[in-house]
Specification:
This protein is mainly beta and 992 residues long. Helices cover 13% and strands 36% of the residues. Strands 50, 51, 52, 53, 54, 55, 56, 57, 58, 59, 60 and 61 form a 12-stranded antiparallel β-sheet that branches.
Length: 992
């Protein structure tokens, strides 16, 4: 069958039919998904293909027992020698027979044509029908159609289809897209019977005039030869009938937007074929430095979305696509960038239906040519090589043509991280020629020569504000990107365009920090149109480790020689689509309703009264708040009362003052949906915000009464229910409950943003200074009346770095209180952030439940946890852990003023005679409770490999370093950066 090395040809692809819209037609279709015969080998010429075995289509062969997944972020797994590929080129050969319905043969004889459609084949596929070569694909995530009519054997109903797919090809060089390298027929394969004189393609133009409220509708239809065909469009709901290539205005219709995704069912038909689609009327335009939809400035509260499933990889199911859309809508996300390729086509149908703005991106990235030390790689990059131009333009046109009729698509992006050059410029102009109504985006056009929107990745808040003000000079831009290619003559143009963060707030592991500050810029500066968090989902593949533990695998877990480890696990949801804490942060920061609750004191009154000012701002672009109910609670959520807030128009604000009951610990306000929506039940919380009333936050705190005197003995020091080691000053027992490992804690298992493989690399610096192995030295144990005073020095190995630890203990018969301080010496480096300043200890049994009064229900760090509220929360020990794919610091609950750690009822807790420990704190402290030590958390490579050790490990944080986005983006802002500084704490312990 093989006549040439087609997988290396430029121009790429052969006999592909022109791109067209993915239409739902009444013309016959045979879906070929299911079980195919499959042979696998390591040579592209097929000389070593193995024995036939069954395989499922759609799917990737690496996830069905052939070869291995490979993850690289930037570096290609093959040598850079375009368009050539290595001799070892994993290859899969698919075969199946197809029974053609009898009427197909009759219709073909009458002039109808048959096509094979491959919706996704990675990275190149060659197709034969009955051993006749019918074509070769280009664009792994593009639809490829071939006319196979002449290869059919009409005398028999049975046809044989062969598809040979190669992992590496000429396409590989332009598809380096920060994801698993997975191969095969991963989207559907179909046979289409195309009627002669049928409707091969449709282009619908559904505009909206906001000044008059009119829709403007036209459409064109073409046949398989590209010529216009007569057709009629009908929208029964509008009592509308329209002929092709004419235009009409429609009064009184409802426009489409992310907030009100109004669609009208339409048919387009002629004598031989009818297609159906859903029409949304909307206008996208750039006015000055603002992107507008339907005449209103919009802010894209977005996320980048790769297609992924932990079991079936990039293959998409209807269930996981819908799950993604519903999760996005429920968490106030209103926009998605299809990074970095066109998605499964029906995902866009869901965006149309449920209301998500889409930046649709082409199947194009050449990042590995432009990264690293090798200047020769840049010189042979496809982006400026004329040999690639026709291929890249053709691929771009096919991507636009497939998805052009979706109202959700408001911007086209040619691709990602591929530098600039003649091919990139030609691709941008090709989009404009096909669709002049949608803006074109490409982040690496830093000069803004041909794009309509200025966009950047991972820009700091400070640099973003410079851009927001239109004050970014050419010199500033050149310094940021490290080269002089940015054109000075386009500075004014660049500063006058709308701006998007095409990627920001890198959500890898415990992150992303300071999202709120970015969102605030969009509210202060009109040209800041929002952005897209990187990214939606952790690409962890469900597998097992050598010990049989169920884990999510990442780069290196499948024996790859070259990989980028867990950089593929950087999403707002875990691989199984369980939300991570970062998704709840995004929900709060992205809320279209901004709540502010401020406690006020009437100090002029004889008896000071508390009140709360509640301010509500509506950041919707199109809808008032009439669909929302605003409620308040003064008792930590036990009872709610609706607030008398009249509907607030888009962009407007309202406020009211509330009298706060004297006993209220906090004032919490929330906005909920009044009625059920397509994506949420009635009562769904859009946003909550609270403010604590400081004098009442610990109404049940145990106070020390009937003070006990310390008793000093040779073997221990007794103070009420507590026992201390007289040689170290450490707490050893509390009311018969053994306390292990008591001491100062300056360490945390580094998060992904701090790991040695990142550019910040705090992990190496922290470990070099011994923060993970501190040692204490007792200065004195002294009595001061009824108080026990303990002074220690805590230092790190091999350094002069020290903290002076002063503790003053007091007790009664039931509780012990410690007021402490930690004061650093002058040796600490000014430029070194610390991980934590706090205390740690462990309990001799496993915790069954933790009840706490503080901020929850999710983890909080200095620059995260926006959506948490102060209240009473209950969680199991497992629920307090955040199961990041790569284990790291997690689970801190902030502002905890009262906590009860309830131990299991097993033998260990019965032996110690207590069910748990109570901790109260004033004014509040960070609390993490774990079934494993920080050291074990640091050592483990997968969450599934963490094994509880039977103890309960408690960490109390007086101060913590922020999390930032430094695995790819900025470090924590200065206000969230922890340097060595004095801290104090006030804790009371008792057994329960």
């Amino acid at each position: 069958m093989l006549e040439s090395r087609y997988w290396e040809h430029l121009p790429a692809g052969d006999s592909i039919l022109p791109g067209r819209a993915h239409l739902r037609s009444d013309a016959p279709v045979l879906n070929l998904d299911g079980t195919w015969e499959f042979r696998y080998g390591l040579r592209a010429d097929g000389s070593d293909l193995g024995q036939p075995a069954p395989i499922e289509v759609p799917g990737q062969w690496q996830l069905q027992g052939y070869g291995k997944p490979i993850y690289t972020n930037i570096v290609y797994p093959i040598p850079l020698d375009p368009p050539l590929t290595p001799d070892q080129n994993p290859t899969g050969h698919y075969r199946r027979t197809v029974e053609l319905p009898p009427e197909w043969a009759e219709r073909v004889r009458a002039g109808d044509r048959v096509r094979v459609r491959l919706q996704g084949a990675d990275s190149v596929a060659k197709v034969w029908i009955n051993d006749v070569d019918v074509g070769t694909t280009t664009g792994s995530r593009l639809t490829n159609e071939f006319d196979v009519t002449d290869a059919l054997e009409l005398g028999t109903a049975t046809q044989t289809i062969d598809i040979r797919v190669h992992q590496w090809s000429v396409n590989t060089y332009v598809e380096d897209q920060d994801m698993w390298w997975l191969s095969g027929l991963f989207r559907s394969v179909d046979l289409l019977l195309r009627p002669v004189s049928g409707i091969d393609d449709v282009t619908v133009r559904a505009d909206y005039e906001p000044a008059t409220g009119e829709g403007i509708l036209s459409f064109s239809a073409t046949g398989d030869d590209g010529a216009s065909v007569d057709a009629t469009l009908r929208i029964p709901e509008l009592d509308l009938t329209l002929s092709a290539d004419t235009e009409t205005s429609i009064a009184g219709l409802e426009p489409w937007s992310d907030e009100t995704p109004r669609l009208y069912d339409a048919t387009i038909s002629n004598d031989v074929e009818q297609v159906t689609l859903r029409v949304g009327f909307r206008r996208v335009e750039i006015v000055g430095d603002m992107l507008r939809v339907n005449g209103q400035r919009v802010v894209l509260r977005g996320v980048n979305r790769h297609e992924f499933d932990p079991v079936i990889g990039r293959t998409q199911s209807a269930e996981n696509q819908l799950a993604d859309v519903l999760l996005m809508k429920r968490h106030n996300i209103n926009a998605v960038r299809t990074s970095h390729y066109p998605p499964q086509h029906d995902f866009l149908d869901l965006c149309d239906e449920y209301g998500l703005f889409v930046v649709a991106e082409g199947d194009f990235e050449t990042h590995g040519f432009h990264h690293g030390w090798d200047p020769a790689a840049r010189a042979i990059a496809p982006s400026d090589d004329p040999a690639w131009e026709s291929t890249l333009v053709e691929r771009t046109e096919r991507f636009v043509q497939r998805d052009k009729n979706h109202p959700s698509i408001i911007i086209f992006s040619i691709g990602n991280e591929s530098a600039t050059g003649r091919c990139v410029t030609a691709m941008a102009h090709a989009i404009k020629n096909l669709d002049a109504k949608r803006p074109v985006l490409y982040e690496q056009d830093y000069s803004c020569e041909y794009v309509d929107i200025y966009s950047l990745m991972y820009t700091s808040v400070a640099d973003s504000e410079t851009i927001a003000r239109g004050q970014e000079t050419t010199e500033i831009a050149r310094a940021r990107h490290g080269h002089d290619e940015i054109r000075a003559d386009l500075q004014e143009r660049r500063n006058s365009l709308p701006f998007l963060w095409i990627e920001y707030a890198h959500a890898m592991g415990n992150g992303a920090g300071n999202l709120r500050e970015y969102v605030e810029l969009t509210r202060r500066y009109p040209r800041m149109q929002g952005g897209f968090i990187w990214e939606w989902i952790d690409h962890g593949i469900a597998t097992t480790d050598a010990q049989g533990n169920a884990i999510y695998g990442y780069g290196g877990d499948f024996g790859e020689e070259y990989h980028d480890a867990n950089f593929v696990a950087d999403g707002l949801v875990f691989p199984d689509r369980t939300p991570s804490p970062a998704l709840f942060d995004a929900k709060h920061a992205y809320s279209p309703i901004e709540l502010d609750v401020a406690i006020q004191h009437d100090d002029g009154a004889v008896t000071a009264e508390r009140s709360a000012k509640v301010s509500v701002t509506n950041h919707h672009a199109f809808t008032s708040t009439a669909h929302l109910a605003f409620e308040v609670t003064y008792d930590l959520g036990q009872t709610w009362t609706e607030l008398p807030i009249e509907p607030i128009d888009p962009g407007a604000s309202a406020s009211l003052t509330l009298r706060v009951p004297d006993t209220a610990p906090s004032v919490r306000v929330c906005a909920r949906t009044r009625d059920e929506t397509a994506w949420a039940r009635a009562g769904h919380v859009i946003v909550e915000q609270d403010a604590t009333v400081s004098a009442n936050v610990v109404p049940s705190r145990h106070h020390i009464v009937a003070r006990r005197e310390p008793l000093v003995r040779a073997e221990d020091v007794e103070l009420g229910p507590a026992r201390f080691d007289p040689s170290t000053g450490d707490l050893r027992e509390l009311g018969g409950l053994p306390i292990g490992g008591w001491g100062v804690d300056l360490w945390r298992a580094p998060i992904d943003n701090e790991r040695a493989r990142t550019r910040v690399n705090l992990e190496e610096r922290w470990k070099a200074l011994g923060l993970h192995h501190t040692a204490s030295r007792l200065i004195a144990v002294a009595l001061d009346g009824d108080d026990l005073v303990i002074d220690q020095v805590v230092g790190t190995a091999g350094t002069t770095l020290r903290f002076a630890h002063h503790q003053r203990w007091s007790a009664d018969g039931e509780a012990v209180r410690v007021r402490g301080s930690l004061i650093p010496n002058a040796a600490w480096p000014d430029d070194l952030p610390l991980a934590r300043i706090g205390l740690t200890f462990n309990l001799p049994a496993t915790a069954k439940r933790i009840d706490y009064l503080g901020y929850g229900p999710y983890e909080t760090y200095p620059d995260t946890g926006y959506g948490n509220v102060f209240g009473n929360h209950t969680a199991t020990l497992d629920e307090l852990q955040t199961p990041y794919v790569f284990p790291q610091e997690n689970g801190n609950r902030a502002g905890v003023v009262d906590a009860r750690i309830i131990l299991t009822n097993g033998d260990s807790s019965e032996a110690i005679g207590h069910t748990g420990l109570r901790i109260t704190s004033e004014p509040g402290i960070g609390l993490a409770v774990r079934p494993w030590s920080t050291g074990e958390l640091d050592r483990a490579a997968h969450h599934g490999a963490l094994v509880p050790d039977g103890r309960t490990w408690v960490t109390l944080s007086c101060a913590l370093h922020g999390v930032g986005s430094a695995a790819c983006g900025p470090e924590p802002l200065p206000e969230y950066t922890l340097h060595a500084r004095p801290v104090t704490y006030d804790l009371t312990f008792s057994v329960v």
